[in-house]
């Protein structure tokens, strides 16, 4: 099953250093039965895009307490169905992965371009107010979410970190 795992640039650097994403349980996002039920006319590609978007939102929240550059990071991993459990209390696309994910299972990385940094930083600062429904704060979060994440093949992630192209 393809699972989208939210993280940060530090988390990406840790994946490269340790060879895994963990420890478990990990919260991720995937095409779940609840997501299919909510969007019955969507095809698999559209559903995966929605799950990726949910993971990007979770990555944004991970930036609240971390002194890292303000960039969302989502790792797409193919994990055995047997280790994935739906987490409907977290969200329609939310799942828990019951084991650490080895590096070899990471198919791709999705990262904000550095140009998104100011918008992402503003969104992080506005999250609490956005959760309370304050219109300007919601707008700031929406502006950050409007930035498309860049796609990197799994084999490119090590080079991104070791070359210094992605500060960790």
Descriptive report:
By secondary structure, the protein is of the alpha+beta class. It contains 6 helices and 9 strands. Strands 1-4-8-9 form a 4-stranded antiparallel β-sheet. It is globular. The relative contact order is 0.22.
What's the gist of this structure?
This protein is α+β, with helices and mostly antiparallel strands and 168 residues long. The protein is built from 6 helices and 9 strands; from the N terminus they run E-H-E-E-H-H-E-E-E-E-E-H-H-E-H. Strand 5 and strand 6 form a beta hairpin.
Topology:
Blueprint: E1 2-7, H1 9-18, E2 20-21, E3 26-29, H2 33-38, H3 44-62, E4 73-78, E5 84-86, E6 94-97, E7 101-102, E8 106-111, H4 117-131, H5 135-145, E9 150-153, H6 157-162
Antiparallel strand pairs: 1-4, 2-7, 3-6, 4-8, 5-6, 8-9
Helix pairs in contact: 4-5
Order of helices and strands: EHEEHHEEEEEHHEH
The overall strand count is 9
Q: Would you tell me the overall average pLDDT?
A: 93
Kindly report the spatial arrangement of strands forming the biggest sheet. 1-4-8-9
Radius of gyration: 15 Å
Instruction: Report low-confidence residues grouped into runs of 5 or more.
Output: none
Separate helix tally: 6
Distance between the termini: 28 Å
Question: Which shape, going by the Cα principal axes?
Answer: globular
As a percent range, the share of strand residues is: 15-25%
Tell me the structural class.
alpha+beta
What level of helicity do the residues show?
Answer: 25-40%
Largest sheet, in brief, is: 4 strands, antiparallel
């Amino acid at each position: 099953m393809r699972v989208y795992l939210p993280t940060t640039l530090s988390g990406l650097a840790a994946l490269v250093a340790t060879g895994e994403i963990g420890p478990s349980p990990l919260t991720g996002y995937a095409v779940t039965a609840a997501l299919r039920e909510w969007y019955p006319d969507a095809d698999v590609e559209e559903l995966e895009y929605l799950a990726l978007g949910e993971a990007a939102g979770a990555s944004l929240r991970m930036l609240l307490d971390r002194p890292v550059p303000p960039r969302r990071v989502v790792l797409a991993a193919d994990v055995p169905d047997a280790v994935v459990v739906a987490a409907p209390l977290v969200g329609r696309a939310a799942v828990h992965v019951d084991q650490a994910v080895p590096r070899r299972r990471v198919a791709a990385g999705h990262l904000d371009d550095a140009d998104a940094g100011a918008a992402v930083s503003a969104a992080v600062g506005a999250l609490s107010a956005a959760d309370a429904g304050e219109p300007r704060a919601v707008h700031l979060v929406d502006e950050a979410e409007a930035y498309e994440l860049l796609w990197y093949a799994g084999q490119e992630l090590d080079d991104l970190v070791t070359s210094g192209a992605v500060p960790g």
